[in-house]
Amino acid sequence: MNQDYIKPDNWSIIEEGFDRESVKSSESLFSIGNGAMGQRANFEENYTGETFQGSYIAGIYYPDKTKVGWWKNGYPEYFAKVLNAPNWIGINIEINGEDLDLNTCTDVKNFRRELNMKEGWYNRSFTATLQNGTEISANIRRFLSLDLDEVGIINYEITPLNKDAKIIYKPYIDAGVTNEDANWEEKFWKPLSVKKYRNEAFVTAQTFKTHFKVTTFMQNTIWSNGEKQKLSPTSVDTNADKILFYYDVIAAKGEKTAIQKIGGYTVSLNHVDTIAAAENTIQIALAKGYDQLLQEQIDAWAKIWEMSDITIDGDVKAQQGIRFNIFQLNQTYLGKDSRLNIGPKGFTGEKYGGSTYWDTEAYCIPFYMATKDQQVARNLLTYRFNQLDKAIENAENNLGFKNGAALYPMVTMNGEECHNEWEITHEEIHRNGAIAFAIFNYHRFTGDFSYIPEKGLEVLIGIARFWHQRASFSKNKNQYVILGVTGPNEYENNINNNFYTNYIAKWCIDYTHEQIQKVSLEYPSDYKRIMEKVKLSETEIQEWNKVAGNMYFPKSEEMGIYLQQDGFLDKDLTPVSELDRSQRPINQKWSWDRVLRSPYIKQADVLQCFYFFEDHFSKDELERNFNFYESFTVHESSLSPCVHSIQAALLDKMDMAYAFYLRTSRLDLDDYNKEVEEGCHITSMAGTWMSIVEGFGGMRVKANTLHFSPKIPKEWDGYSFKINFRNQILKIAINHKETTLTLEGSKELTVFVNETAILVKPNSLVTV
């Protein structure tokens, strides 16, 4: 834990007291989004202190030219930037001739932020004394509509406290924005037009290179003492990419005034005429009005929480943590558009770039499968199918592979590889395995096999072809090996025979062969179509099987563990417990050379294999490998604690499982990795959900049936969650004495609790 200023609360993220040092962290933690757009919790008014300005639009990116010291063949030409979008939230405020700026005010008190996760809004309030002696109170509420996902709304209220005040509200929209991490310090937006009506304004800009067109819009209404004022701007400032309105308001001491600002984006991904679309969107929002939009927001979030909420009794910090994670996941992706995906920072920051990593398949899909309609998870799989041609191009152009072998990108926006670190881009190839595993996992959980003959089998064949060509035969070992890779542990690069990579490569080939046989028997027309398209022969499949059937797996017979890679035991095996705390995190304290030579593990690697393929290994094997590798794991990846929590629970190491759960659920709230100001770790938040459902709840799918092995941390009085399993919603509640199950629907369901079959009938309670 590196920060502790967020107040414990079951349903809200709360900060009290103005601290300049925490502004950037809070901008991340209080971020809001609606699946189509989002923004950091920047102040609407001007702030001259340290800040990280950021607004983002789903699917909009810029191909920033790769910047490296020494170019190598195969480097991606660009690194896809999550674009800082035009700013629509800005409302500068002048009070009695002085700009309101919390960085320069002589006094700021009663400062409070609240992110209300239950209802989906962000509120900020404070009392401030300006240098001119005017004291005011302010209350600002902002939300991004889930129903009208191109619309956000701000209600900014000011009350003079010690004297009358002339208040000038200065709302603006501005496309003259830049990214913090631009490789060449380029501007990414080209202004096209500025347009205004009485209280409405539109700035249209286009991204360079990718040519996404975005119209940023605003509409402003002034209120005094609860009455709508028929005010027009007293003046307007305009340049090529910005427009600012001035509204002069005279407020008596104690009189509340407000500006309500409707804003947002219409984009060329969805509209031919973005300006006309923006005009129409404003009219729809105006017709509803602020109160109705807010109520619809509350209702929409109530519907989301009805299915996705996890309750924890007796541990407020744990409860706050899981709800924060679930809230951010739903803010980032709602499954409406198969062109979109789940970026590692969502709408909270720019770091990492790209919109898709292997995180989606390995961590996020289970959450979306179980808490939403299965079509949402299917859309995530379809996203990869739609980019199969690009994955084949990637393998051919950058690795020299042939015959339709597919290497999916480590990082992508449109299917092209856009990650610029060689040891990640071309060595962290295990992401192919996660994509195949997600297809298997989807079928296992939903029972929907149709995706495989329709789309998935082509993906699996491309991936199997990749593994066949990527493996090489070692005469020395008389087995197939995979050389020069980076496993999930990115603190080892260019190593040979990463156990997880080799294992999932074998599994992918075996699984693909099984699906080919099943489709040939049960879906002959799809089989014929696919085979004609991919030109797959029995001879080629036999060659695959030679690789899969004779794959090398590094192992220490003496220790009874699988080796993370061939040379792991050659390292100085000093456990983390003996590492001086002053040296942590090692990725910020040590040279990269020292990190690579160390035994320290960034995240689950061998243990990632045990997580995916738990039923392939005995519990004793898991325990030996867990005890060994956990002792060297520094958990400096956000994806690490959740896997360890799940496995610790399985091994009845409940204190450890609980500690890992707290770390993953409060990773950002408590800033464990000293980096939350750069944005929140959205994709790892799905792992937090898994820590409870798969870890403490012990949920597994075996032979088309749900199994649970419930356990409960001693710190909790009870917990509950819901699962949408094959269109039947099951609620599980667990306390120290019993487990109860409730089923919504019209059909009964058999589940297993601690290996005992339980018949659950609709709308009745079963206690175990």
Give your account of this protein's structure:
The protein is α+β, with helices and mostly antiparallel strands and 768 residues long. The protein is 33% helix and 25% strand. The strands form 8 sheets. Strands 1, 9, 10, 11, 12, 14, 15, 16, 17 and 20 form a 10-stranded antiparallel beta sheet that branches. A 5-stranded antiparallel beta sheet has the order 8-7-13-19-18, with no helix packed on it. A 5-stranded antiparallel beta sheet has the order 21-28-29-30-33. Strand 11 and strand 12 (151-160) form a beta hairpin. The chain is globular. The model has no long low-confidence stretch (mean pLDDT 95).
Number of helices: 19
- Spans of 5+ residues with little confidence (pLDDT < 50)? none
Number of strands: 33
Distance between the termini: 37 Å
Helicity range of the residues?
Answer: 25-40%
Over all CA atoms, what is the radius of gyration? Answer: 27 Å
Mean pLDDT: 95
- Write down the overall geometry: globular
Key phrases:
768 residues; alpha+beta; 10-stranded antiparallel beta sheet; 5-stranded antiparallel beta sheet; 19 helices; 33 strands; 25% strand
Write the layout of secondary structure elements.
Elements: E1 12-16, H1 23-29, E2 32-33, E3 37-39, E4 55-57, E5 61-65, E6 78-82, E7 91-95, E8 98-99, E9 107-116, E10 121-129, E11 135-144, E12 151-160, E13 165-174, E14 189-196, E15 200-207, E16 213-224, E17 227-229, E18 235-239, E19 242-251, E20 257-267, H2 274-308, E21 311-313, H3 316-332, H4 359-371, H5 374-386, H6 388-399, H7 422-425, H8 431-446, H9 451-470, E22 472-474, E23 479-481, H10 499-522, H11 524-534, H12 538-549, E24 555-556, E25 561-562, H13 586-589, H14 592-597, H15 606-612, H16 619-630, H17 640-650, H18 654-665, H19 682-696, E26 700-702, E27 705-708, E28 718-725, E29 728-735, E30 739-744, E31 749-753, E32 756-760, E33 765-767
Parallel strand pairs: 27-31
Antiparallel strand pairs: 1-9, 2-3, 3-4, 5-6, 7-8, 7-13, 9-10, 10-11, 11-12, 12-20, 13-19, 14-15, 15-16, 16-17, 16-20, 18-19, 21-28, 22-23, 24-25, 26-27, 28-29, 29-30, 30-33, 31-32
